[in-house]
Design goal:
By secondary structure, the chain is α/β, with parallel strands linked by helices. Helices cover 40% and strands 22% of the residues. α2 crosses α11. The chain is globular and about 65 Å long. Bound molecules: P-hydroxybenzoic acid. P-hydroxybenzoic acid binds next to loops.
Length: 391
């Protein structure tokens, strides 16, 4: 083992030597690749969403020559299968075996809550590029945990305000897990604020797609509107089943994500659906135009909100890394820079609340052909209230 004794040296020389040893340590670290753990689903109901988030993250890195703050980015990727029962083992693999510098994930709220617990317990930097679980930026909030997407409350609340523009009563349908429950809670709050009333909540287990009994019940209740939270592959079937059941014209359907990234598969069944979300097709800002062109060039596809969230996760990580010139050991400084980051996101200006959740405009969109066309803004600079975060 190599060691240096400073005992018999003059102070001037020892401090110079100590500096050299420390500085070369930092250089050794910053000349190594920075390890990004991508824990996302590549199989199951949320597979497409996981792949799109990863695409967005990688796009930002490749636009910067494959490096962040001068360090080559190395990915360690793992399919989380959107399975909460495997989340702890998977997250621990990335943190303890692979020693990633940042944990990026995931889509499913239940999986992400366990990841956040692992990140908090091991003081690993984490960025959530989708899952909206309230706890992550609420009761479990932590200095080292950030979200580049939304809290489930945000799009739910915006959707409630939107539905209340035209309707007085609504029934909700959701998958029974954190994201469904919280999204519905947000919807109720927005809908009541606009003068509406939710008369019944219906649900089914994640990722079940046997919607027929719920649609039959909805038709007998006859509310003025319906709000749904199912996602990924499930939302394709839901929107098609809804139209096939003849409900599309009699009970207008709302749902924040319900048409995002899936219009081609939903076809006419989705045409005309109004949604509220923090991204939209046709958003006019220079960053979005450049982002769409760049994404198309690399992936030969049109980006959606999931690509934006992945891209912004990389931008947020870069903001931290740049502030410390790639030296991830300076964690407190990195975190400060991330907290204060003002990002130019394709969705518009993006900053973060005290709980590390995005503050963002919520757009109204209408499904036309293959686009969720932006029509107006339902609420500007919406922040999650996060009353339980004691950061
Ligand atoms: C979630 O589990 O938080 C979730 C999943 C898919 C979405 C939105 C939220 O589209």
């Amino acid at each position: 083992m190599f060691s240096i004794s400073f005992r018999h040296m003059p102070a001037r020389i020892t401090s110079a030597l100590a500096f050299t040893v420390l500085a070369s340590g930092a250089i050794a670290q910053t000349s190594q690749p920075v390890k990004v753990g991508l824990m996302l689903p590549t199989s199951g109901t949320f597979a497409e969403l996981g792949k799109t988030v990863a695409n967005g993250f990688k796009l930002y890195v490749s636009e910067n020559g494959g490096k962040l703050a001068g360090r080559t980015v190395q990915y360690v990727e793992l399919d989380d299968e959107s399975d909460p029962s495997k989340a702890s083992e998977n997250a621990n693999k990335l943190v303890k075996r692979d020693r990633v510098d940042v944990l990026v994930g995931t889509i499913h709220s239940g999986v992400a809550m366990t990841m956040a617990r692992v990140a908090r317990d091991t003081n690993t930097l984490m960025i959530v590029p989708n899952a909206g679980a309230a706890e992550i930026t609420g009761s479990m909030c932590a200095p080292n945990v950030f979200r580049s997407s939304f809290s489930n409350w945000q799009p739910g609340y915006a959707s409630g305000l939107l539905a209340a523009r035209k309707h007085k009563t609504a029934v909700t349908i959701s998958w029974k897990y954190a994201a469904g429950d919280e999204s519905v809670r947000g919807f109720r709050e927005g809908f009541e604020k606009g003068g509406g009333r939710v008369i019944k909540d219906l649900n089914l287990p994640f990722p079940n797609v046997e919607f027929q009994p719920l649609l039959t019940e909805l038709a007998t209740i006859k509310p003025e509107a319906a709000y749904v939270f199912v996602a990924g592959a499930g939302q394709v079937k839901f929107v098609r089943d809804y139209a096939a059941a003849g409900l599309k014209n009699s009970i207008p359907l709302y749902g924040a994500f319900i048409t995002e990234g899936t219009l081609a598969a939903q076809g006419d069944a989705a045409s005309g659906l109004q949604t509220a979300l923090h991204y939209a097709d046709g958003l006019k800002n220079p960053k979005n135009e450049a982002f769409i062109a760049s994404y198309r060039k690399v992936f030969n596809a049109t980006p959606d909100v999931f690509a934006v969230q992945g891209y912004d996760a990389a931008q947020l990580f870069a903001a931290g890394l740049n502030a410390v010139k790639g030296d991830t050991k300076k964690k407190a400084e990195m975190i400060k820079a991330m907290e204060n980051a003002k990002l130019e996101s394709p969705r518009g200006p993006l900053s973060f609340s005290k709980s590390h959740n995005p503050i963002q405009d919520m757009y109204v969109r209408v499904a036309m052909g293959n686009k969720n066309v932006m029509t107006d803004v339902i609420v500007k600079a919406l922040a999650d209230p996060s009353p339980d975060c004691k950061n």
